[in-house]
UniProtKB/TrEMBL annotation:
SUPFAM superfamilies: FAD/NAD(P)-binding domain (SSF51905). Keywords: Oxidoreductase. Residues 32-384 form the FAD dependent oxidoreductase domain. This is Gamma-glutamylputrescine oxidoreductase. The gene is puuB. The lineage of its organism: Bacteria, Pseudomonadati, Pseudomonadota, Alphaproteobacteria, Hyphomicrobiales. It comes from Methylobacterium isbiliense.
Amino acid sequence: MAEPFPLQPSLWASTAAPAPATAPLGASTRADVAVIGAGFAGLSTALHLAEAGLRPVVLEAREIGFGGSGRNGGQVIPGLKYDPDDLVQRFGPERGERLVAFAGGTADAVFDLIDRHRMDVPHTRTGWIQGAHTDEGLVQAERRAAQWARRGAPTRLLDKAQTDRLLGTARYRGGWLDGRGGAIQPLSYARGLARAALRAGAVIHTDTPVTAIARQGRDWVLRSAHGPEIRAERVVICTNGYTGGLWPGLARTVIAANSFQVATAPLTDNLRRSILPEGQVSSDTRKLLLYFRLDHTGRLLMGGRGPFREPKGPGDWAHLERIVAKLFPQAADVGFDHRWCGRVAITRDFLPHLHEPAPGLLIDIGCQGRGVGLQTSMGRAIAAYLATGAADALPIPTSPIAPLPLHGLHRLYVSAVIAWYRISDGGL
């Protein structure tokens, strides 16, 4: 997939800790498990496999964190798109509550890894606020906070005055706060995961696109673009929003929507005290949600949907810059010094999917915009499944690969839906 319009490096590329030394695959070799993709899911899988005593080899087409893992908003939000009671209704009491527990612990997984491996990753953990812009959104916030609170999560409802103060904008009617959430520098975190995986015994080859995968006897054979091959009894594909044609039909099971972001110049101390003064991260209840936070350099970040296509120029981020001025008029004159975007893999049912189309081949796809915690935890679960063979190590059952009907028309459909949501969400 083409790289976004090269205006300047993303904020994360400009401020990340150095990447560990890696190199392309230079000679054919064997691995216990071959992992395709060096994002959060692939790196977490490799780290936990290595800690379990297996020898994983990671193959990355570009560089560590090149895809959505190094381009997202850096918000660590527990849970899934569905509320806990909805998951229990969908999957049944036992499996549903197990999935709720898994989803509720995804933020813990990230911050625990950062602490345990002493990663050089700027991070905060003061919670996530979901602001409600309508009365319907307030009802949704009350329901979510109550369901998570019944399961022991540190949640609280926020009235309008509290929401105004904590967010620094008067545009919301109230909301709720989930104390489990937080923020990280996502590219630093991807590089920290890679460094930890290497120390544990994993091997990572960057600039090594996999061009073919085939079964030969008991082995899977992965051919790289440079020619060398890797043989492994087991393979994990973790390419998410940057999935190509490596496995038949896989790319057509998701919509790889583009998530656009802008970052202001560093705010003055006075402005920082007026916007997200306690350091929470936020995304709202809009259908076309907005997400925003401060980073460790004091910049205000705003993210949301943009054109489905790759950007052509600075104008593709103009809607986000206008939103910053409307939500935070006190920052209207600050100016912006970073613009970037990255692909998010969205499934038809808004749930992560695990596929096992052949023995020894496991595919993880679908992050729905909560990939930092979700894919970190998914990698840990995949490693446990491969190391033990226990199916209940996976948070969701595997399912057949089912391409979306008329997938080629979905870009037009998504673009039309985005335009409609912008109108129905209140015209910000």
